[in-house]
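hi!! sorry for the late reply, been swamped w classes. u asked for the two structures so here they r. pasted raw, havent cleaned anything up. first the sequence of the first protein and right below it the tokens
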Amino acid sequence: MSTLAKLTSSTPQSPKFLGPMQVRSTLARIAAEQLEAVQNEVESATQKAKSLIAGRSEIDLTTRLEPASWSVAECLDHLTQTTNAFVPAITSAIVTAPQLTMNRPLKTGALTKLLIQNLEPPYRLRFNVLAPLVPRQQDFYLAWSAFEDSQAQLKKTMQSASGLAIDEVSIESPVYARLSYNVYGALRMLTAHERRHLWQIEQIFKTLDGTQAYNAS
């Protein structure tokens, strides 16, 4: 059969059209990868917290090294309080975010980038914790349950931002009223904040283990 005959005798193929979600994904490929990376950071934080507390006694999880310091349970409660303070504002801003119309990276913002650098562990700069974010829960099991719930909510909020220019909408800080961040920067700041306090939990356990080893010798 000639080439012409093959062409004319073959079953016509319907043209393939991209659906709205596929078009959005194509236009926002770089941003989608950034958003996925931040979602993975949330999941990694949850998994790291689980590995850190595995096998630990309730005493280890609720002990303060000093009267003014936080226990592991209180660190987790602080993370929960922080996430719960930010998520409503972030959710409201995402609803107003425009669609991404080009394949470009999301921007963090200069001030937010600086804040993130100072949040990352091992940290030197300490921040004064405002009253709404001071830990209130000392029961470890309640603190852990609330932490898991807040992590799931944060991840769900991030997923709702797919294909949107979330660096073009901002929120006023629920912590420091004079500051504002674009939504992408705020999400990155929250994950850096999680790493900060997970590192703090590691230091608590190292100190406890060292003290226990010394007392046993």
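now the second protein. again sequence first, tokens right under
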Amino acid sequence: MRAGGAEVVRQKETPLTLEAWVGEIKSQWQIEKIPEYEMDPEKIKHLAIICDGNRRAAVEKGLNPWDGHRAGVEVIKGIAQAGRKWNIQTLTFWVWSTENWGRERAQVEGVMALAARHLTDTRVIEEFQKEGVKFVHLGRKDRLPKSVLSAIVSLEEQTAKYEPYTLNMAMDYGGLDEATRGVGKIIKGIQEGSLNPELIQKNPQAILGFLDTAEQALPDLVIRTGVKEGEIPHTSGFMPLQTAYSGWVFLPDLFPNLTPEILLEPISEFVEYERRMGR
């Protein structure tokens, strides 16, 4: 190919590597690049995010689908930083549902290994200690691999008294499963005589105390990423009891593609919106 008599040589674009992608994400979520925002702590005490679109984002980058989960870990870390900067005291990330076990074995094993590695990372533990972050697992523990279970239990024990922030990781979580386990606790308490059934009958709110989020503020806002164009958004049964009065936002952006600016937009809109809560 020639232009103006000179030969122009086109160079092939270098394929994006996972390391380069992770580097881009880390750069985007550096604390100094997160916008300043004065949060009214009464407006959003608890922000929950359904982390959807990891695999699709990786495929779009020309990478293996499971590489999207590695990228997603960095976004979670970035959002955790942003949450503290914006004074959001409780963050929940739904990273693995009760249905996800049906995925191909290599992906399941890869995600579990990734979780075990990052939950035992000394830098993560030191950051939780420095920032006062309590780690809480939501969901079932009985089906998790021993390496993941051990990491979760250890991190929960180490951070149990930390405050003022809470980071919930919903892993092997399903709303119906959570409700079923909660009902089981109620039945057991009644059978053992430690729970008066009238407590539930006279105060339905008491049911919330038997769920995985007991003693936590209910989610004010739930954001689901990766909603395809033309798709009718759905909640996938996420916290059906806790989110009865929550605001819901469905973003087309895939989870690894979130930036602080993309995330802040629905948050700031929600803060400006006045909820009536049935009044």
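hope this helps!! also noticed smth abt the second:
The longest helix spans residues 67-85.
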